[in-house]
Design a protein that fits this description.
Blueprint (H helix, E strand, L loop, with lengths): L3 H10 L4 H4 L5 H16 L3 H29 L4 H27 L5 H19 L6 H21 L4 H29 L7 H19 L5 H17 L9 H24 L1
Helix pairs in contact: 3-4, 3-7, 3-11, 4-5, 4-7, 6-7, 7-8, 8-9, 8-10, 8-11, 9-10, 10-11
Amino acid sequence: MQSDNQVAVAKSSQVRLRPIALPVEHGGWGLLAAPVLLGLWLAPSLAGIGLSIAALGAFLTRQPLKLAFGDYQRGKRYPRTVWAERFALGYGAIALTGLGVAISTAAAPVWLPIALAVPFALGQLFFDLRKESRALAAELCGAVAISALAAAIMMANGWPASRALLAWMLLALQAVTAIIYVRIRLRLARNEPAHRAPAFWWHGAALGLVGGLVIAGWIGWPVLVAFGLLGLRCWIGLLPRSLSTPTPLVGGQEVLASLITVAGIALGMHF
């Protein structure tokens, strides 16, 4: 007869670690990469690298934390619960280490964008704990919160708050429009009821806002070009003939759109 320890080892060996250790929403990686690239492009520093590591740790903590909390709510403790706790603690340690490096090497305080992002992060956490991670409000809160990383990296290298927060706003605007567009496109591709108008409205409003900022001299024309390309991508992507595009290819297109936007914002902030 097997001992309790042998049974525990056998059960642990059957646990699939990847769904516990890594987020299931692949789009989250792109949302994390964009502010890291933009921030380090405009303001490379050791503190910025530390903030990027802290953000990565916090981003990875979300998946095992959701699983562990869900098991606690059910009053159950599975072998995966133990692994979820371990991964959450490990990722949390990485986040704290990165934050410590950032605080000790930053040229200026970085708390302003972090504090402003907290309500959005808590909003996403609220939906996570309710098992509504894929709700539109949850995704929008997460996108806005994580975009603040660009502003924090910039301020850590001495950029003024006004310029850093402007970069956050532009990056968050791109993320919000992308989420709305992709959700509508995927619903239409599955023949589910959806209206194209909100995607067009949001892209039009974003383009108008960016155009106003360019006219006011706050940013350069490359940002307007980038958002113009986003609007063109939205219009083409929602054409009936485009809806047959495989979902992985749509994801790749969005990564490219995000990179174009990062380049446009970075160049436009220098002009």
